[in-house]
Structure formats: structure tokens, C-alpha cells
Design brief:
Radius of gyration: 22 Å
Structural class: mainly alpha
Order of helices and strands: HHHHHHH
Number of strands: 0
Number of helices: 7
Helix content: over 70%
């Protein structure tokens, strides 16, 4: 499923949740059905396509003022409750927002985050030499190794595919 299709499903789900739980309506009222159709139509014609950000962060506001205010009202109510009513959709949305934010950071930041994983890898194995219990060593290893992996994946996400190719070519030349 592409990004646009996932956004469409999420918007419709949010409008349905709003109608069912906030308005206590069994079916979606006509005005909210129109809002869902309008949102789908806007997503179909989004000029950014699969590279779009979330609508809230978009530099071009393509919604008409009336529909923009209606969707804001729905999102304000549904957003905080998504973890209760649709946890999978909420987690995917949160992950996508985090990924977009990380990718907006600079190449230099990505390299710094990648380099910060090296001390954590070293510490995760060096702590085995400490005179502490096996359980403490296991907990320390899991924490330090997990932090190293988080830094590694965050750094790779920040620099992206192009940055990875750029780093690779630097090491081949040098």
C-alpha cells in the first residue's frame, strides 16, 4: 500500500471514529461523508504524490477554508484518541512523522549520529570485563547494544540512500 492510499485510509478512519464516538452516530452523517470524499479527492490530486508530508506540515494548503476547519476539528478530537481506537494506524503515522523529521536533518547530523554509535558498540562489549554479576552484564549489554543500534539506524535514516552512496564513495577514494 502506497503512502497516499495509507493516508486515505487513515483520514477516513479518523472521520468514522469522530462520527461514531464523538457524535454518537451509527452511520457517517452527510457532511462528514462529503468531508471524507473531499479529503480523498485532495489526496488523489496531491502535487507531491508519494513524497508528500503530512498535510499539517505541507507548504501548500489545498483545502478550502470550510473543509480545512472541519478536518482540523475532526483531527483535534481524534488524534489523541487514535492510540485507543486504532493503535496500528497511530503507530504507523507516528513512525512516518518521525522518519520524515529525521530525513529533514542535514547530512552532517546523520554522520555525527552514525559516529556516535561506535562508542556504544565498544562499551557494549567492553563492559563484559567488569567484575559484576552476569545479570547486570546482560542488562548493560542489552542497553548499550540497543543504543548503538538505535544510533546506527537513526543515522542511516538521516543521511538516506544518497548520503549512504556519498559516504561509500568517500571511503573508496580515500
Amino acid at each position: 500500500m502506497g503512502k497516499i492510499e495509507r493516508e486515505k485510509q487513515t483520514v477516513r478512519l479518523m472521520i468514522e471514529l469522530y462520527c461514531r464516538h464523538h457524535l454518537h452516530a451509527k452511520t457517517m452523517p452527510e457532511e462528514y461523508q462529503h468531508l471524507a470524499d473531499y479529503a480523498w479527492q485532495r489526496l488523489d490530486h496531491c502535487r507531491f504524490g508519494e513524497k508528500k508530508t503530512v498535510c499539517k506540515a505541507c507548504p501548500i494548503h489545498c483545502y478550502a477554508p470550510k473543509e480545512r476547519e472541519a478536518i482540523r476539528k475532526v483531527m483535534r478530537w481524534t488524534g489523541p484518541r487514535m492510540m485507543i481506537y486504532a493503535p496500528k494506524a497511530a503507530l504507523i503515522h507516528t513512525f512516518m512523522m518521525l522518519k520524515n523529521w529525521l530525513q529533514s536533518l542535514s547530512f552532517r547530523t546523520g554522520v555525527m549520529v552514525l559516529l556516535s554509535c561506535i562508542p556504544f558498540y565498544i562499551l557494549s562489549f567492553a563492559q563484559m570485563l567488569l567484575p559484576i554479576s552476569v545479570a547486570a552484564k546482560g542488562a548493560l549489554w542489552a542497553t548499550l547494544f540497543g543504543t548503538a543500534k538505535a544510533c546506527q539506524y537513526s543515522g542511516l535514516t538521516i543521511i538516506g540512500v544518497e548520503g549512504y552512496k556519498r559516504l561509500k564513495s568517500k571511503f573508496k577514494r580515500g
